[in-house]
């Protein structure tokens, strides 16, 4: 069977291409408690209130918790969102690896033959490097997002173009990429285990995959070289075919270091019950395994339980070196109408965030249901909105003990500027975009009581909400 679907159709694609209807695992937490928390979150969201929480100690994050387990925790990133304060601050706080979502694909970096444009991808790599994050390269040889000039080449020219593309792109990023998806999605869905029709497959045959890996190794011997695919997460005909290819490569010394399991899950393609076993059998071939594009449709405790299942599976396989979720926030997910990620459209931590952090062994994340005993929590709302400016209010609420002091950072997106503040004592970083607010008096807030400060943001053409950091208190 030949798959001819177009990935730009977004979320419906995977829904209709995989028929393994294994039931979802049962939720691990009390449905009643979660429902209450989610109900409260919905009420707050409906009122335009963003709730955030923090503790007196440094908050644990996904990246830090994963690092303690010897793994990375990454996300797909779009260069176009890096200028959005809440996006950048969530990314920078929580993740320690990034994958450019589209910016390193063939159509983006070599739109015309031998004419390379690395601008957007460079922007992501520079951002990641400046924050100490690692970068996954995605992807060198893929049938999709492939410019027309490539598809039009004859076999000999296509081989030259493929090797040149791998060489130029890997050379440009040499030393900056921890793992490359050298070949992406070369196998068909369904039960055939056959290769997918593509210009590479149709004109160069099975051997183009081996050739791509050999070329890649010759360019950057330090980067891990991965084969990456979807619907290979459990044991099935497609994953068996990939398994056999990897086994063959290892037995013949073809340079392959890792296999990426995209892990796009939804009710029609749930987390398979043999997910861990499948990761393990690949690891047993002598390659690393990585979860490369994780997202799970759903919400609340069921979604949270599925995320922990995935994290636990990775942690149970010593060669599972990291997890990447396919986006920072539901707002920008490739699944147009879904909510498959860890942060909601307002960058609130979801129950899935909390369960993911807990599965990684972290704690103290708060928000999204079940954050434990925070010293103080903050919530934000836009109290007035005009064409040129808006007023924001942050409410600081003490936890189960009184606090005597508190600090909250507010980051606005340039060219926005804070023009006025009240009920607090602000200080600024050198960019003028990050305001650190402390109380103007002694800052005493009784257990469970609240205090608020406010500010006016001049939009200067940008109406984005500010990023409100966690509350710290002593
Ligand atoms: O998330 C990507 C989306 O923005 C693009 O429109 C789409 C185009 O093919 O690709 C999406 O990312 C895909 C990834 O590169 C490969 N695996 C499947 C991902 C989701 O479709």
TrEMBL record:
<keyword id="KW-0812">Transmembrane</keyword>
<keyword id="KW-0378">Hydrolase</keyword>
<dbReference type="InterPro" id="IPR001000">
    <property type="entry name" value="GH10_dom"/>
</dbReference>
<dbReference type="GO" id="GO:0031176">
    <property type="term" value="F:endo-1,4-beta-xylanase activity"/>
</dbReference>
<dbReference type="InterPro" id="IPR031158">
    <property type="entry name" value="GH10_AS"/>
</dbReference>
<dbReference type="Pfam" id="PF00553">
    <property type="entry name" value="CBM_2"/>
</dbReference>
<dbReference type="InterPro" id="IPR001919">
    <property type="entry name" value="CBD2"/>
</dbReference>
<keyword id="KW-0119">Carbohydrate metabolism</keyword>
<dbReference type="Pfam" id="PF00331">
    <property type="entry name" value="Glyco_hydro_10"/>
</dbReference>
<feature type="transmembrane region" description="Helical">
    <location>
        <begin position="35"/>
        <end position="54"/>
    </location>
</feature>
<keyword id="KW-0326">Glycosidase</keyword>
<keyword id="KW-1133">Transmembrane helix</keyword>
<feature type="domain" description="CBM2">
    <location>
        <begin position="369"/>
        <end position="474"/>
    </location>
</feature>
<keyword id="KW-0472">Membrane</keyword>
<dbReference type="InterPro" id="IPR044846">
    <property type="entry name" value="GH10"/>
</dbReference>
<keyword id="KW-0624">Polysaccharide degradation</keyword>
<dbReference type="InterPro" id="IPR008965">
    <property type="entry name" value="CBM2/CBM3_carb-bd_dom_sf"/>
</dbReference>
<dbReference type="GO" id="GO:0030247">
    <property type="term" value="F:polysaccharide binding"/>
</dbReference>
<dbReference type="GO" id="GO:0045493">
    <property type="term" value="P:xylan catabolic process"/>
</dbReference>
<feature type="active site" description="Nucleophile">
    <location>
        <position position="293"/>
    </location>
</feature>
<keyword id="KW-0732">Signal</keyword>
<protein>
    <recommendedName>
        <fullName>Beta-xylanase</fullName>
        <ecNumber>3.2.1.8</ecNumber>
    </recommendedName>
</protein>
<dbReference type="InterPro" id="IPR012291">
    <property type="entry name" value="CBM2_carb-bd_dom_sf"/>
</dbReference>
<comment type="similarity">
    <text>Belongs to the glycosyl hydrolase 10 (cellulase F) family.</text>
</comment>
<dbReference type="InterPro" id="IPR017853">
    <property type="entry name" value="GH"/>
</dbReference>
<feature type="domain" description="GH10">
    <location>
        <begin position="56"/>
        <end position="359"/>
    </location>
</feature>
<keyword id="KW-0858">Xylan degradation</keyword>
């Amino acid at each position: 069977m030949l798959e001819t679907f177009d990935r730009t159709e977004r979320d419906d694609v995977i829904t209709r291409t995989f028929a393994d209807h294994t039931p979802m695992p049962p939720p691990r937490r009390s449905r009643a408690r979660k429902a209450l928390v989610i109900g409260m979150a919905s009420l707050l969201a409906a009122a335009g209130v963003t709730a955030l929480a923090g503790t007196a100690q440094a908050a644990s994050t996904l990246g830090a918790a994963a690092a303690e387990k010897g793994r990375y925790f990454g996300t797909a990133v779009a260069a176009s969102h890096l200028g959005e304060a809440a996006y950048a601050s969530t990314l920078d706080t929580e993740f320690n690896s990034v994958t450019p979502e589209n910016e390193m694909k063939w159509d983006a970096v070599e739109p015309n033959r031998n004419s390379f444009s690395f601008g957007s991808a460079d922007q992501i790599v520079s951002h990641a490097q400046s924050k100490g994050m690692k970068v996954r390269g995605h992807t060198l040889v893929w049938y999709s997002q492939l410019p027309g000039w490539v598809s039009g080449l004859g076999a000999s020219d296509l081989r030259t173009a493929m090797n040149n593309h791998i060489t130029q792109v890997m050379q440009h990023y040499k030393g900056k990429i921890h793992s490359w998806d050298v070949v992406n999605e070369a196998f068909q869905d369904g039960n055939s285990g056959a290769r997918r029709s593509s210009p590479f497959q149709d004109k160069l045959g099975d051997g183009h995959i081996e050739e791509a890996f050999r070329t890649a190794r010759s360019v950057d011997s330090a980067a891990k070289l991965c084969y990456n695919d979807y619907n290979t997460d459990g044991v099935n005909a497609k994953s068996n075919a990939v398994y056999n290819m990897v086994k063959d490569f290892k037995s013949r010394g073809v340079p392959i270091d890792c296999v990426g399991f995209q892990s796009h899950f939804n009710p029609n393609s749930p987390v398979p019950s043999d997910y861990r076993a499948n990761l393990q059998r690949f690891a047993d071939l002598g390659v690393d395994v990585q979860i490369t594009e994780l997202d799970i449709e759903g919400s609340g405790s069921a979604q949270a339980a599925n995320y922990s299942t995935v994290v636990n599976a990775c942690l149970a396989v010593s060669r599972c070196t990291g997890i990447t979720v396919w986006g920072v926030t539901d707002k920008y997910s490739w699944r147009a109408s879904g909510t498959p990620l860890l942060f909601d459209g307002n960058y609130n931590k979801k129950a899935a965030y909390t369960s993911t952090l807990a599965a990684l062994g972290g704690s103290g994340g708060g928000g999204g249901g079940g954050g434990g005993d925070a010293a103080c929590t903050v919530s934000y709302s836009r109290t007035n909105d005009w064409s040129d400016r808006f007023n924001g209010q942050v409410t600081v609420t003490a936890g189960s003990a009184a606090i005597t002091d508190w600090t909250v950072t507010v980051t606005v997106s340039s060219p926005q500027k804070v023009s006025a503040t009240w009920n607090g004592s602000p200080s600024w970083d050198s960019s003028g975009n990050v305001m650190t607010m402390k109380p103007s008096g002694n800052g005493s807030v009784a257990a469970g009581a609240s205090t608020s400060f406010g500010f006016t943001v001049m939009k200067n053409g940008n109406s984005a909400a500010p990023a409100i950091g966690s509350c710290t208190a002593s």
